[in-house]
Structures are given as C-alpha cells and as structure tokens.
Design a protein that fits this description.
10 strands; DM13 domain-containing protein; globular; DM13_domain; five-stranded antiparallel beta sheet; mainly beta; five-stranded mixed beta sheet
C-alpha cells in the first residue's frame, strides 16, 4: 500500500508541474515614426525598457506613451513569458514589489496595450513586473527609462 501511495504522489507531482502555454494576444501595436518618439496616433513616447528574466524566461519591449489629454498607455511588444497560475502585471518602485499598482490580472504573450492609472507615479513606479501572486514569484521585469 505504501508503494502505491508513493507512486501516486510521484506521478501527481510530475503532471502538476507541466508548463502551461499562454495564449498569444492578437493586439497589433501602433508603429512609431522615424524619430521613434511618436506612434501613428500621435502619442508621445515617454519611457521604454526591455524585459529581463527573473525566475522564468521573459522577453519583449515595454513602452509608455502619453496622448494629448495626458492619458498614458503601457505597450508590451513581442512579449513572451512562461505561464503561471496567477500572473499579474504590476508597476512598482523596484523588483521587490514595493509600492505597486496592478495593471492587469490577465497576462498573454504577444503585443499588449494597458491603460496606466492616473495615480501612477512613473518617476517612482518605473519597474514593470510580471508577478505570480499565488506563489510570490517574480517571472520577469523591465525598468522604464
């Protein structure tokens, strides 16, 4: 009986650790002009950064645009990360999730556009984090400069 219980636990652990596949988002971002400062809708490029790996493979480019009404948008281009059980995208002061704002609880690979709340202070909250809330794990990050 003991051998069956151990075998069951090993098989269960093996299958529970399989990687999920994150769906590809079909959003197509607006291309920047030749100067790289404005996209096709006339929004001004404020900040940008590149994703880096933390505990999981994460890649892509992140940009912050502002329109004439001071509405800010976070754009993730060619974004790829591993799947996780409870992934979120945060703006935070650092990689330790200090003073963060959650932008979304739906993380997909591909090109993503997210509205930045007006109370976000991008001078302080200049890290974009891919965070697994369930296990408190940083998948990847980008620093906005």
């Amino acid at each position: 009986m003991k051998i069956y219980l151990i075998s069951f636990c090993l098989v269960w652990a093996l299958f529970s650790c399989q990687k999920e596949v994150i769906r590809q988002n079909d959003f197509t971002s607006n291309l920047t002009d030749s100067s790289g400062k404005f996209n096709s809708t006339g929004q001004n490029l404020l900040l940008q950064g590149n994703f880096e790996n933390a505990q999981h493979s994460t890649s892509g480019v992140v940009k912050v645009y502002e329109d004439k009404d001071k509405k800010r948008t976070l754009i993730l281009e060619n974004f790829i990360t591993d799947a996780g059980p409870d992934l979120r995208i945060y703006l935070a002061e650092d990689k330790s999730v200090t003073n963060f704002i959650q932008l979304t609880d739906k993380v997909q690979n591909g090109n993503i556009s997210l509205e930045i709340p007006s109370n976000a202070d991008l001078h302080k909250q200049n890290h974009v984090l891919i965070w697994c809330r369930k296990y408190s794990v940083l998948f990847g990050f980008a620093q906005l400069k």
